[in-house]
Design brief:
The protein has 22 helices and 25 strands. By secondary structure, the chain is α/β, with parallel strands linked by helices. Strands 8-7-16-17-18-15-19 form a seven-stranded mixed β-sheet. A five-stranded parallel β-sheet has the order 10-2-1-14-20, with helices on one face. Helix 6 packs antiparallel against helix 7, helix 14 runs antiparallel to helix 15 and helix 15 runs antiparallel to helix 19. The chain starts with 19 loop residues before the first strand and ends in a 7-residue tail after the last helix. Bound molecules: flavin-adenine dinucleotide and the ligand C=CC1=C(C)c2cc3[nH]c(cc4nc(cc5[nH]c(cc1n2)c(C)c5CCC(=O)O)C(CCC(=O)O)=C4C)c(C)c3C=C. One of its GO terms (molecular function) is oxygen-dependent protoporphyrinogen oxidase activity.
Length: 555
């Protein structure tokens, strides 16, 4: 094997003593971190500390006595990519294979992701996003030209060298104003509930940014750079549920009875592995005691060797303040937005044009971000269930600080009256204001995250930052970041000598050999045996090191 260009070797003595790890936050990130800590090695003492009376964080479903389910947070998980396959493998490990419900790419929910535009010149009605090759060559409102014209524009547009820019400005430059105004603007609302003019292209679509910087054109760059696209992990591809998802061409999936059942299965699993779960215990502060960290709560203190924080960055910012005001300031710079959600139930099947739902571009005079047609994707008998989502980046501007639930319900009901012509009253509803529920990866986000992790390394804090504030807002990304942090904890436990290679100096094929760590798989990582030191050697790419806060932190 080629020599490492630089090496961060951590050769701790093989420690037999029980290490203690505190996982802060019992959202899906915290529960996944606890699961992988148990799964990837000899379990340390693991304590999950959760502020509220329940686990799951934003993953939250209500099941009524008649078995009707309302989802209040995430409802579907992506299948694609290593992170997507990893969550499917996790569901299988949790014994959920029979309860997983996949939606094939030919299902109307996967094909029809509509854009809502109320502009009179385009008819004030719902428009389907192009979902076939033919549609790309056809002029369809709200676009004034066939979308293929935007592809041609990308091939012609000159490259602009920059570190980062907004999603809107990137797409406007490369694909034209209509793709930015309708498609990208709406998509940003359907993932971040955010403003495409402020979100970072580098954090959201890093590969698109990178191929432009390298090749000048995005589409040409993607074509030329195919071999550098993230390789799928062949270990994950052999998992039964992943194979089923591929065979049946799933695009998204959920769990019977609601996504909260995924969280319940995780909770059961970690309890079986003797993880302590403290509920109703908000962590107030973290202080240092020698090499250890002490969590201070109103009830009791907890001294541990390692902390994996799965708290939202704005909360972690105040928890870490006494230990590092600088880290606290960095974390406080990541903004959050609030979303109002209203679940509505109607008798009968009322959706004329089935689909996943629709998104409203910010150029429309509408306080609603979009509407999800829940029962088109997962039917629940003879009823229609819709979720209307509103506010987000614009919450305060549209609703003030503290709108009443009745006012949000009124907005939701009149929205579906107008857009879907549903004139009857809902039979049942649920209104919630999800305060600061989604972090905004604004321009410069990756630098902030990198600086925060570099500071942790410089201060030699036994602390990892995990969760939706840092490396991706989707559930899959959160689970992957939890897995990476658990992997690192295993390394710190002294089981491995760890070497991080500079990708540039190695044949990528060597680096991309998948590794096996105690039967677990990591895509850009390998393990081998060092005969000199009689130890297993783990190595991984700087990308993994960056995502888990290693020393070679280059965004
Ligand atoms: C409306 C909405 C729709 C979404 N839709 C999708 C979707 O369709 N697909 C998808 O993949 N993702 C979706 N997401 C994103 C997904 O829900 C999140 O990425 C994920 O749930 C975040 O998990 P987490 O564990 O990082 O954070 P959280 O869920 O925020 O968990 C953090 C936990 O920390 C606890 N906590 C807070 N303060 C303290 C403290 N001081 N001490 C101890 N504990 C504390 C909280 O109570 C919480 O349980 C959606 C999000 C929202 C809001
Ligand atoms: C079509 C209507 C949609 C509305 C309204 C909507 C609201 C909404 N979504 C989030 C956060 C996320 N959504 C995610 C995935 C996702 N959302 C929609 C549609 C709507 N979302 C679709 C079709 C999908 C699946 C996309 C796919 O990959 O196939 C995700 C996960 C993204 C990921 O990386 O996997 C998040 C996060 C919020 C906060 C929100 C509120 C307005």
């Amino acid at each position: 094997m080629a020599q490492p260009h630089w090496a961060a070797a951590q050769l701790a003595g093989v420690e037999k003593m029980t290490r203690s790890v505190a996982v802060l936050g019992g959202g899906v990130g915290g529960l996944a971190a606890a699961h992988y800590l148990c799964r990837l090695g000899q379990p340390s003492r693991v304590v999950v500390v959760e502020a509220s009376h329940r686990l799951g964080g934003w993953v939250s479903s209500t099941t009524y006595p008649d078995q009707v389910v309302f989802e209040h947070g995430p409802r579907t998980l992506r299948v694609t990519g290593n992170a997507g396959m990893n969550t499917l493998a996790l569901a299988e490990d949790l014994g959920l294979a029979d309860q997983v419900r996949g939606i094939s790419s030919s299902h109307p929910s996967a094909r029809n992701r509509m854009l809502m535009t109320l502009m009179m010149q385009v008819g004030g009605k719902l428009h389907k996003l192009p979902n076939s090759l033919k549609a790309l060559f056809t002029k369809k409102p709200p676009f004034s030209k066939p979308l293929v014209a935007s592809a041609v524009r990308d091939l012609m547009a000159s490259k602009v060298i920059n570190e980062d820019e907004s999603l809107f400005s990137f797409v406007n430059r490369r694909f034209g104003p209509e793709v930015a105004k309708y498609a990208i603007d709406a998509m940003s609302r359907g993932i971040f509930a955010g403003n495409a003019r402020e979100l970072s292209v580098k954090s959201f679509a890093r590969r698109l940014h990178d191929v432009e910087q390298k090749h000048g054109s995005v589409l040409l760059g993607l074509l030329k750079d195919r071999k550098n696209a993230a390789k799928t992990d062949s270990n994950l591809e052999t998992r039964e549920l992943v194979k089923r998802a591929k065979r049946e061409k799933w695009s998204v999936w959920s769990v019977a009875g609601g996504l909260e059942n995924f969280v319940k299965a995780l909770e059961k699993n970690i309890l079986e592995n003797n993880v302590d779960i403290w509920k109703n215990v908000p962590v107030k502060r973290i202080v240092r005691n020698g090499e250890k960290l002490v969590l201070q709560t109103d009830k009791k203190d907890l001294e541990v060797d390692q902390v994996i924080s799965c708290l939202p960055s704005n909360i972690m910012s105040s928890v870490i303040q006494p230990l590092s005001p600088k880290l606290s300031t960095l974390l406080s710079s990541i903004p959050y937005v609030t979303v109002g959600i209203v679940n509505l139930e109607y008798p009968g099947h009322l959706i004329e044009e089935p689909g996943f739902g629709y998104l409203v571009p910010s150029s429309e005079p509408n306080r609603v971000l979009g509407v999800i047609y829940d029962t088109c994707t997962f039917p629940q008998g003879d009823r229609t269930i819709l979720t209307v989502m509103m506010g987000g980046y614009w919450f305060k501007e549209y609703f003030g600080n503290n709108p009443s639930h009745e006012s949000l319900l009124d907005v939701a009901v009149s929205e579906v009256q107008q857009s879907l012509k549903i004139k009857i009253k809902p039979k049942r509803h649920h209104v919630e204001i999800l305060r600061d529920c989604i972090s905004q990866y604004v321009v410069g986000h990756s630098e902030v995250v990198c600086s925060a992790r570099k500071l942790i390394t410089d201060l030699k804090l036994p602390l990892a930052l995990v969760g939706s504030s840092y490396d991706g807002v989707g559930v899959n990304d959160v689970i992957m970041s939890a897995k990476n942090a658990a992997f690192m904890e295993n390394i710190f436990r002294g089981n491995y000598m760890f070497i991080c290679y500079n990708l540039a100096s190695l044949n990528p094929d060597i680096v991309r050999v998948r590794g096996v760590l105690l039967g677990e798989e990591f895509c850009v990582c390998r393990l081998s045996f060092d005969v000199m030191t009689n130890r297993r050697i783990g190595c991984c790419s700087p990308a993994i090191m960056t995502s888990i806060g290693g020393p070679n932190c280059s965004p």
